[in-house]
Amino acid sequence: MPELPEVETVVQQLRPLVQGQTIVSLRVLDPRLGRLPGARLRQRRVSTVTRIGKQVALALEPRTGRSLQRRGADPGWIGIHLRMTGRLIWLPDERSREPEHVRARITLGRGKLVFADLRRFGTIAIGARRIELEPAGVDPLSDQFTCERLAQLLRGSAQPLKVWLLRQDRLVGLGNIYACEILFGAGLDPRRVAGRLRVGEIERLHEVTRAVLLEAIDNCGTTFSDFQDAHGVTGSYQRYLKVYGREGLACPSCQAPVRRIVQQQRSTFFCGSCQARSRR
Length: 280
Ligand SMILES: [Zn+2]
Known about the structure:
The strands form three sheets. A four-stranded antiparallel beta sheet has the order 1-6-7-5. Strands 2-3-4-8 form a four-stranded antiparallel beta sheet, with helices on one face. The chain is α+β, with helices and mostly antiparallel strands. The protein contains six helices and ten strands, in the order αββββββββαααααββ. Zinc ion (ZN) binds next to loops.
């Protein structure tokens, strides 16, 4: 499942290819995606490609001239959520072979963007305004993610910290991998009660969350230099990870073996010494 850094990488790689292009058609091949207003997307120019939470979002330029009156209800945003197995694949010309499991196809003036998705959990949302695609949680790379906001979100929670970090209605885009890496970076025990962190610990958590995500985006960018690979490869970035998937291996800071426990049916990897409960 792609986490925030992978989605951001897809966005950054798609942007120069798709930005400024005009949509020729949007074709839905999988009825499970629902009815999308394909006709109203025709001849619309993509002003930019950006990330909204974990969605890859295409912003459309407002129509000009006669049809301007309809602008309020006109589609302004296309948000593609990759979920478990969704991939966005860029095909530069007619001769490029489409992958398997294509569920939708956006044909542009030059090239095609296909949405392939083996397990079909991915979604495409169309909204008039950006806010319609905004998720409930706070994006940890946005300006809204301040230390005060994090403290506010944590307040009163009785959940273990690691479980809390996965809540998409609190922070958007963290999955199992980066939740473990962030807690290691912050030196916090994943079993700590989320609502009971001290001010200094919240500050550390805030700082490390951004740092880990930004570093992961850098690593994704260099690992997947080729666009096609960006969506076909999973796991090769794991060599950058410090604790995730490393049970029994030496902690990169203190050499103690990395531990694995299960929290809400998901593995948590941590260093029992660097992330000791009593550590101040
Ligand atoms: Zn350690």
